[in-house]
Design goal:
The complex is a heterodimer of chains A (about 150) and B (about 375). Chain A is built from six helices and no strands. Chain A is an all-alpha fold and about 150 residues long. Chain A has one domain (about 35-145): Serine Threonine Protein Phosphatase 5, Tetratricopeptide repeat. Chain A is elongated, with a radius of gyration of 20 Å. The termini of chain A are far apart. Chain B has a single domain (about 15-290), classed as YVTN repeat-like/Quinoprotein amine dehydrogenase (Methylamine Dehydrogenase, Chain H), CATH 2.130.10.10. In chain B, strand 6 (about 55-60) and strand 7 form a beta hairpin. The longest helix of chain B has 11 residues, at about 300-310. Chain B is globular and about 80 Å long. Classes of the chains: A mainly alpha (about 150), B mainly beta (about 375). Chains A and B meet through helix 6 of A and loops of B. Chain A: It is found in: Cytoplasm, Cytoskeleton. Chain A: Belongs to the ARPC5 family. Chain A: It holds the Pfam family P16-Arc. Chain A: This is Actin-related protein 2/3 complex subunit 5.
């Protein structure tokens, strides 16, 4: 075959970046969102107070932040809490969350699905079933349509 | 409550005439069919063929008896009844993408068309040239306009868009009207001025509606939320997230109650409390058929468990009247202040007429304030 003598660098250009009418999201101020306090969550897990651990883990979600490190850390904290739960405790804990809490939990669950580890998917599916019972299809739709996720 | 199945194809859009004896609808193609009520049946009396693309919006002006249609062919036509035939007049909208929705203004001297060109065309008739002329509202719209609704003062226009915002614009055309009086949304209303822009909800805004007084605007967006904003010094917004699939259309039936419908195939009632600035779920408005619960034999139970991994005997059949998403809702009697009947059409090609009084008596906890 003849060697490709013309440059094909143009194939790597993202044409949508140059569209003058490209939609850019409004940039909200990244309020001081450092993600949940890992130390406090760890303490609560050790003490066995799982419900409080989840409530703390769901505080300060790094939704507006553009820093991937913060998001990774928050995801790791929440995943740790979710996997340390006993199956029977999941349902009452989900019931104790308010509407925003359930939506946030769904966001973390789907984020967790994106990077499956050895055992995480099975546990996340259990959480998903219980969160779906409370939040319904609406909570899943909100995760799918959110512009700024966890 | 009655249901009539017009077609097998979805009904893209519909509009009623003034005395509700005729309905114009688009059977998901380039035409508009007008049906006339004939006792209990509907007979097709006119077929309007002029568009080259799917007709996406129809509106029928009750007083002047004109129909305006808009379509994906980037055109709009104003149809007038001459004798027994509907004659079209082309309106140049100057858009380069499909038109998505069209609405006559309350006084029927203007109409607005929302399109994929990220702008709204406000059209009015210029007597001297005997021609429909349009003006564009462009800023700050960043994506397709999906839905429109006029304020009763004939000047303000609410628009829901794919850029996740519901806005109220001024569509004041000095050639056809006087300067409008101040409203709850503001007093200075030059053409194209943004009187209100929503924040807070995300998701495409599928349906928008002004209340009868014009002081409240409600919108339904794709993240399964409904929101109501009340005009004032600072506009007050209240939104409600729901556990259902997204709603596609919304309308006020009294000053405090809204009915919305969408991908869940049944209309839903919401109630707005202005003292608490809160929106709450009022009830599901569908009347389900009482399905007889047959006893299951052990064999059936085992088969269910084998095939579907569940012992549930629920059939995978929708119990609602509409068998597919409801895409449009329109008020038949009573206006937006005291609606007595409303009509829904959807993707199942059917049209259902709902009677508010009988719904109220059928659903025990339903309270329409």
């Amino acid at each position: 075959m003849a060697k490709n003598t013309l440059s094909s660098r143009f194939r790597k250009v993202d044409i949508d970046e140059f569209d003058e009418n490209k939609f850019v999201d409004d940039h909200d101020e990244p309020a001081d969102q450092q993600g949940p306090d890992a130390v406090e969550v760890d303490n609560l897990i050790r003490q066995g107070d799982m419900m409080a651990a989840l409530h703390i883990a769901l505080r300060n979600p790094p939704i507006n932040s553009r820093n991937p490190a913060i998001k990774e850390r928050a995801q790791a904290v929440v995943l740790r809490v979710l996997t340390s739960f006993k199956s029977s405790d999941i349902e009452p804990t989900v019931k104790s969350l308010n509407k925003n809490g359930v939506d946030l939990l769904m966001m973390y669950i789907y984020k967790g699905f994106e990077r499956p580890t050895e055992n995480s998917s099975a546990i996340l599916l259990q959480w998903h079933e219980k969160a779906f019972a409370v939040g319904g299809l609406g909570s899943i739709v909100r995760v799918m349509t959110a512009r700024k996720t966890v | 409550m009655s249901y009539h199945s017009f077609l097998l194809e979805p009904i893209s859009c519909h509009a009623w005439n003034k005395d509700r004896t005729q309905i114009a609808l688009c059977p998901n193609n380039h035409e508009v069919h007008i049906y006339k009520k004939d006792g209990n049946n509907w007979s097709k009396i006119h077929v309007l063929k002029e568009h080259n693309g799917q007709v996406t919006g129809i509106d029928w002006a009750p007083e002047s008896n004109r129909i305006v249609t808009c379509g994906t062919d980037r055109n709009a036509y104003v149809w007038t009844l001459k004798g027994d035939v509907w004659k079209p007049t082309l309106v140049i909208l100057r858009i380069n993408r499909a038109a998505r929705c069209v609405k006559w203004s309350p006084k029927e001297n203007k109409f607005a068309v929302g399109s994929g060109s990220r702008l709204i065309s406000v059209c009015y008739f210029e007597q001297d040239n005997d021609w429909w002329v349009c003006k564009h509202i462009k800023k700050p719209i960043r994506s397709t306009i999906l839905c429109l609704d006029w304020h009763p003062n004939n000047v303000l226009l609410a628009a829901g868009s794919c850029d996740f915002k519901c806005r109220i614009f001024s569509a004041y055309i000095k050639e056809v009207e006087e300067k409008p009086a101040p409203t709850a949304w503001g007093s200075k209303m030059p053409f194209g001025e943004v009187m209100f822009e929503s924040t807070g909800t995300s998701g495409w805004v599928h349906g928008v509606c002004f209340s009868d007084s014009g002081n409240r605007v409600a919108w339904a967006s794709h993240d399964s939320t409904v929101a109501v904003a009340e005009g004032g010094k600072t506009a007050v917004c209240a939104s409600l997230t729901s556990e259902t699939l997204p709603l596609l259309c919304v309308t006020f039936i009294t000053e405090n109650s809204l009915v919305a419908a969408g991908h869940d195939c049944y209309p839903v009632l919401f109630v707005y409390d202005s003292n608490k600035a809160a929106l709450s779920f009022g009830g599901k408005l569908d009347v389900p058929k009482q399905s007889a619960q047959k006893g299951m034999t052990a064999r059936e139970r085992f088969q269910n468990l084998d095939k579907k991994a569940t012992t549930d005997s629920k059939e995978a059949v929708l119990e609602s009247v509409h068998k597919n998403s409801i895409s449009q809702i329109s008020i038949l009697n009573g206006g937006k202040a005291q609606c007595a009947k409303f009509c829904t059409t959807g993707m199942d090609g059917g049209m259902a007429i709902w009677d508010v009084k009988s719904l109220e008596s059928a659903m025990k906890d339903l309270k329409i304030v």
